[in-house]
Amino acid sequence: MRYLKIHTLKKGWCDKDEILLHAAFQLLVDFVEQEKPGQIIDWEADELHKKAWKEIMSLYRWWKKERAARKSGRQLPRLHNCRAASFGN
Question: Over the Cα atoms of the chain, what is R_g?
Fold first, then answer.
């Protein structure tokens, strides 16, 4: 991938922190919708995989549904388990 098209940003100036947020979630959306990891990865393989998949889908649903339905999208979701996303650290 050479370019990342961010579908959730309006045209015009955006502060870098806003671009970073939208870019990160665009990558997540592209991963879930285009690469379809739910079909090719065994997320039930172990507890770490289960937690990671739960967090991926929680963030995906928040971005696509809950955040999109709000007037102000500035509130970030509460993570279920930050350690699950730390890849064993």
Answer: 14
Let me know if residue 83 belongs to a domain: no
- pLDDT per position as a tens digit, 34-58: 999 999 999 999 999 999 999 999 9
Count of structural domains within the chain: 1
Residue 65 in any domain: the answer is yes
CA nearest 41: which of 25, 24, 56? 56
User: Please, how many CA atoms are within 13 Å of residue 68, restricted to the half-sphere of its CB?
Assistant: 12
Mean pLDDT score across all residues of the chain:
86
Q: Are 55 and 84 a contacting pair, CB within 8 Å? A: yes
Range of the domain at 35: 16-69
